[in-house]
Amino acid sequence: MSNQHSQLYVKAKQIWSTVVKEGPGYPLELKLQLEIHKQLLNLFQPGTYYYYVFNIFQADFDFVSPGVTNLLGYLPEEMDIHKFLEIIHPEDKPYFMQFEQRIAEFFKDLPFEKISKYKMQYDLRMRTKDNRYVRILHQALQIDFDETNYYRTLDVDTDISHIKKDGTPSFSIIGLDGEPSYYNITETNTLTLSEDLFTQRERVILKMIVETKSSKEIANTLFISPHTVNAHRKNILKKAKVTTPVELVCKALHEGWV
What we know:
The protein is of the alpha+beta class. It has 2 domains: about 5-185, PAS domain (Beta-Lactamase); about 200-255, Winged helix-like DNA-binding domain superfamily/Winged helix DNA-binding domain (Arc Repressor Mutant, subunit A, Orthogonal Bundle), CATH 1.10.10. About 40% of the residues lie in helices and about 20% in strands. It is built from 9 helices and 7 strands. It has a 7-stranded antiparallel β-sheet with strand order 2-1-5-4-3-6-7, with helices on both faces. Strand 6 (about 170-175) and strand 7 (about 180-185) form a beta hairpin. It is globular. The relative contact order is 0.14.
């Protein structure tokens, strides 16, 4: 383990330790937790992905899904927190630290009843086992916590290299169930509520567009006509100030709209 790698782990662990005081006093029923919370994470998968459970107290992974092999080339047993930190692109490691610091600060002041209503997401470049870099969208939701402590998060990393090929990593805090969101937060900005460009129905349709669903598939899922879906599509494009679905997907990812 290199000194740089070790220092990054030490600094990251210091951040995580600010939101956890002690380990959980009961075993986590991992499979049950995953089934319950994967839907709560409100994920889309526009590419290859894997998911894992991060133990905040131990500062390591409790579980890594087999999908990590398809995305990064590593076996699940090879992917621990040290490997994760090691393969972050050197230029993106400072962003990673800034984003994790923001997350810790946000959750320290969040009321207990709202903890499960926020999803964190940011993008980073990660090195695969065959020494390529892919851009992943990292999304995380608190799944194991009580009134005084945080224990575990459910995290999903999705390959978005085909959608966002370059650019500065961006970080967003996404409110669920009507909670406010904070989009594309920079390192110097304070948390400022983002204007909600879209109606609730438009957000649902936007998410399905990012998932590459056709108008017919969206109509069948929502029990509305394709004509209504196409009208929503036009409104979404207009509000997003783009002209094509490809531009819309790229902007939605960059701005953290989904």
